[in-house]
Specification:
136 residues; alpha+beta; globular; five-stranded antiparallel sheet; 7 strands; 27% strand; 5 helices; Beta-Lactamase
Length: 136
Amino acid sequence: MIRAVIVMNTQGKPRLLKFYEFQPPEKQQELTRSVFAVLSGRPDNVSNFVEADAIFGPGTRLIYNNQMKTTVFMYVELGSSYVQMHTILDEIIFGGQVLETSSERVLKAVEEISRLEKSSSSVSFVPKSVSGRFGR
């Protein structure tokens, strides 16, 4: 599960803060400062995944990317599926364009994709008439 999305400049000034769990403003500032302290000292040639147990609690990870003097990062639970995280982000952003801003619509789309994936795992994509013809 994505817990927060934060965009900040290279000096650590937040440009966008979106917490998906309630955090008082003081806690948001503290978390943002802690994240900046961790990320500002990282070289460019290391992984964009950082264990965040000390900042956000056990089982969390920061995922970040530096673009045009801004840093975009999320923190997520380790139990979350990376495929699910990408599905959620793909419903929101595609090719750099924001597709959907309604969290309800995104949630409905992700639930529908999940339902289709579960139902398609038990169904053969080859029609019986074709599979029967080739002796399957």
